[in-house]
Amino acid sequence: MRKLLGTVALAGVVLAGVGWWLTAPEPLPDDTLSGLEGDAARGETVFTAAGCASCHHAPEAEGDDKRVLAGGQRFASEFGTFLAPNISPDPEHGIGAWSRDDFANAVMRGIDPGGAHLYPAFPYTAYARMEPQDLADLWAFMQTLPEADTPSQPHEVGFPFNIRRAVGGWKMLYFGRDWVMSGDLDPQETRGRYLVEALAHCGECHTPRDALGGLDTSAWLTGAPNPNGSGTIPPLTPGEFDWSAGDIAYYLESGFTPDYDSVGGHMAEVVDNFSKLPAEDREAVAAYVKSLPEGGAME
Questions:
Q1: Helical (H) or strand (E) element with 47
Q2: Number of Cβ within a 10 Å radius of residue 169
Q3: Is residue 179 predicted with pLDDT exceeding 70?
Q4: For residue range 80-133, what is the model confidence (pLDDT) as tens digits?
Q5: 201, 204, 205, 211: CA torsion to nearest 10
Q6: From the CB of residue 113, how many other CB atoms can be counted at a distance below 10 Å?
Q7: In whole angstroms, what is the distance from residue 36 CA to residue 181 CA?
Q8: Rounded CA gap, 229 and 76, in Å?
Q9: Which parts form a coiled-coil structure per UniProt (predicted)?
């Protein structure tokens, strides 16, 4: 019996070690940003398209105050409530003490400077597709923003979801960096794909999730329950969404639907961001949406 217990204990230690190894963070290659100079002007466009301020400005902030990334907004989910952190350049309460590589690993790999996994409430699974140059430009722009001395608040997440290392197992299942829509795309659709699947992370809301919170990419952009438990996020696929490309581009500029209804909820922030982008980008998103397959099923 003693020998059996010893064998079981050893097996448990080995399994725990293997699990610890498999769930280890996987940072970007050291040379990912090598030789890249960031351009703050271009970075402002990336910042806007990625919706950084939409989640990280303080609750109730308006106008220019939305560029003070003090955090504090609450995002409810079935796994708990996540609170957006302070990502201003403040060196104590924000990310002012981070290096550019720290920032890149957080945005594109979901890893904090201490090597811990970040929760995928932060859409790094989409940002992982970001071009390194865009990341360098975004970092340059972030340095121009005002500091905020508001401390970040802890997430309200209970056991077992508060085990950060377990996020590494989640990443093994869901953290792919390939494009969802593949095949032959023209230049406009390719730009639209980059905006929809990477920077604007549209799939995070418009695609259903499974029991572990992973996106069901076989039902890409077919609509989903609202994560806060109130209502649903509409589908964008043919058969369910019959707006023209012009309707889509105009909505992203003005917030008005073809029926003269107006945008509401968190989508209002998305429209505010897209209205600041070049018309070509809104048209590219429309082209991508109109090229989606029936039912969202990808080949």
A1: helix 40-50
A2: 15
A3: yes
A4: 999 999 999 999 999 999 999 999 999 999 999 999 999 999 999 999 999 999
A5: 180
A6: 14
A7: 28
A8: 8
A9: none
* pTM score, whole prediction: 0.90
Proportion of the chain above pLDDT 70, given as a percent:
90
pLDDT band at 23 (very low <50, low <70, confident <90, very high): low
First CA to last CA distance, the chain: 54
Query: What is the number of residues in the chain?
Result: 299
DSSP code per residue over 106-147: HHHH-B-TTSPBPPTTS-HHHHTTS-HHHHHHHHHHHTTSPP
- Nearest residue to 225 (alpha-carbon basis) of 197, 206, 200: 206
**Interacting residues of 173 by C-beta distance below 8 A, sequence separation 6+:** 212, 214
Cα-based torsion angle of the residue sequence 192, 197, 199, 203 in order, rounded to the nearest 10 degrees = 120
Confidence of residue 52 (pLDDT cuts 50, 70, 90): very high
Residue 116: both structure tokens together: 């811990």
Torsion-angle region of residue 260: left (phi > 0), alpha (psi -120 to 50) or beta?
A: left
Q: Quick one: pLDDT band at residue 180, thresholds 50, 70, 90?
A: very high
HSE of 19, CA atoms in CB hemisphere, 13 A: 11
> Which amino acid belongs to residue 163?
I
The predicted pLDDT at position 208 comes to 95
* CA pair distance 33, 131, nearest whole angstrom: 10
Q: Is the pLDDT of residue 295 over 70?
A: no
Distance CA 85, CA 201 (A): 19
Structure tokens at 155: 């997430």
